[in-house]
Write a structure and sequence with these properties.
Elements: H1 28-40, E1 46-49, E2 55-58, H2 60-65, E3 72-75, E4 78-81, H3 87-98, E5 103-107, E6 114-121, H4 125-130, E7 135-140, H5 148-157, H6 162-172, H7 177-184, H8 188-202, H9 207-215
Helix pairs in contact: 5-6, 6-8, 7-8
Amino acid sequence: MFDSLIAPSPARPAPVAPAAPLPHEPSAAQLSACLTRMLDEIDYGMLLVGVDAQVLYTNHAARHELDGEHPLQLVGRTLRTMRPQDVLPLQDALIASQRGLRRLVTLGAGVSRVSISVVPLPESAAERALGQGPLTLLVLGKRQVCEQLSVHGFARSLNLTPAETRVLELLCAGVRPTAIARQQNVAVSTVRTQIGSIRAKTGASSISELVRQVAVLPPLVGALRGGFALGAR
C-alpha cells in the first residue's frame, strides 16, 4: 500500500563525497560559552546544584523565576525553601538524586505552587577526581500555561489583530469569555466573534484546543536580559 512512498533504487549508487573536515575543533571554553547561551534561551528555569544544596549555576529563566513569590529561594549560593514544610520534601529529593534516583517534588501553595523535576547527573571522571560529588539538575515547572512572548509570536504569525491577541492572552490565562467582555468593556457577542475569528485563523475546533496549541509552542525568551552570572537579574 505504501509502495509509492519508496523511491526506486538507482542502478548504480552515486559515489558519496567525503565530509569536509571542520576548520578547527572548538575548545572546551568555547563550547561552555555556547552551552551557556543555549541554556539561557530555554524558557524553563534550570539550576545546577552540588552537595549541601549549593547552587553552581542558574540559567536566565531560573534567575527570573526565583523571585519573592517562588517557593524556592536563593540565599547567596545556597538553595532554601520559603515554607518550613517544604524543607523535608526538597531535602529527600536531593538525597535521592545523590543515589541516582529522579524525583518530582511539588512545593509552595496556592498560586505559588510549583512542581520541580530533580534529576541526577552522571558524575564524570574529572568530578570524581576533584571530589566534587554528584551534581543535580533542578528544572522548575511553569507557574502559567502560556508565556506572553510565545502568545504574541503565535498571534503575529497568524495575523491576529491586537484585540484578538488580547483575547487569546486572556483565554490562555483561564479567563472566561464573559469575564473578558467585562475587562475589555465590550459586549460578550463581540468577544465570541473575536474567538470565532481566532479559531478560524488557527484551525482550532474549540477554546481548549486553541489553548493547547499555544501551550505547546516552543519558547520565546526576551532579548533584554541580564548577564550569565549566578544571581544576575
